[in-house]
Amino acid sequence: MNRLLFLEQELQKPQKHPASRLRDSQSESLRSRPRYNVALSKETDDDVDIAKKLLDRYRETLFCNQYLQPQDVDPGIADLAINTDEYHDRFEAATRTVFQHKSIARSIDITLRSDGRQSNQIAYWIERGKLVEKKLLPIKSLRCADSAALAIKKIVLNSVEKFTSSLAVIKQGNPASHGHWYVIAGTDNAIDALNTAFGPFNQQIDTFIRSSDFSLAATRNEWNRDYGVFPLERHGNDFFVIDVWGECLKRDNREPSGSVIAYKPAFCYFDTAGSRGSRRPRDTNKMSIECRVSPREFKALRRQHG
Fold it and tell me: How far is 90 from 96, CA to CA, in rounded Å?
């Protein structure tokens, strides 16, 4: 009789689906494991420090041009009553400034096209970086392509410290719509291996999870929390991501990673397949190398573009 009463009480308790229990145990296992410790070579580790010194200064001061709002240009607007003349005057002035910023950013594209520059040429990114420094940094806004160009220009034309990693400009999704540009730095072998591993988002993250001995059932949200948007396949570990624009966007979304450099492990800052509130993804996360440059070429490029 006692056993029947016990079984009746057990059946009355809310039951979880077996798959839910499995996910819970796997998620708990993921949370209890230490963060994967990726070892960089000394040369790559030194290059991380150089890149941080050159580029981390921008993570607190720049705005993402695509998402620039009047309140970013004039933060004091938020403290004014909406129905006052001062609010309307300042909001109108700030709105004009936003359009001016976007117009200046578009003028960079026009200049590069008129010069016949192509994004698969490293000269394109160096010259774009020079235009970004001249036109966009003074008004403190940039787009993701400008961010990649700034990183390339700053590192390639830097003659003070010896940067030993190769650089690759990465195209993620379709930058003409909702895609993204960023830079990877690392050994030639690491970048060669990455080029063969790039592909759709699900394939990429599942490959990483398998290589790290994590459960494939771990949710994307847990990866976002622990690693940023999503981790990259490491293939020898000896590379890192540079993304000024991506860190500025994470800062604006109140989830900064603390640096424009992502390493141990390297990860992408921006999910171009994010739905942004719509039912369909706005783009894919398919990645490819647009162009690359070896440190052996830096000296000649400095003479040509310095």
Answer: 10
Q: What is the pLDDT of residues 39-68, one digit of tens each?
A: 677 888 899 999 999 999 999 888 888 888
- Which tens digit of pLDDT belongs to each residue from 72-131? 888 888 888 888 888 889 989 889 888 888 898 889 989 998 888 899 999 999 999 999
Q: Could you give the angle at which helices 122-131 and 298-305 cross, rounded to 10 degrees?
A: 50
Any bridge partners for residue 172, and if so which?
180, 287
What are the extents of the domains in the chain?
Answer: 35-62+116-305
274 three-state secondary structure: coil
Residue (of 174, 173, 167) closest to 152 by Cα position: 167
What distance lies between CA 117 and its chain's CA centroid? 24
Q: Provide the angle, in degrees to the nearest 10, between the axes of the packed helices 220-227 and 18-32.
A: 10
Rounded to whole angstroms, the Cα distance separating 162 from 172 reads 29
What dihedral do alpha carbons 253, 254, 257, 261 form, nearest 10°? 40
Q: What is the 3-state secondary structure (H, E, C) of 28-74?
A: HHHHHCCCCCCCCCHHHHHHHHHHHHHHHHHCCCCEEHHHCCHHHHC
Asked whether the beta carbons of 228 and 205 are under 8 A apart, the reply is no
Tokens of 83: 């129905």
What are the pLDDT digits (tens) for 143-156? 999 999 999 999 99
Summarised one tens digit per residue, pLDDT across range 167-225 is 999 988 888 777 889 999 988 887 887 765 565 444 455 454 444 444 443 444 454 44
Task: Report how far residue 125's alpha carbon sits from residue 111's, in angstroms, rounded to the nearest whole number.
Answer: 13
What single-letter DSSP state applies at residue 133? Answer: I
In this predicted structure, what is the pLDDT of residue 39?
A: 64
Gap between the Cα atoms of 211 and 226, Å rounded: 17
Separation of alpha carbons 124 and 103, rounded Å: 20
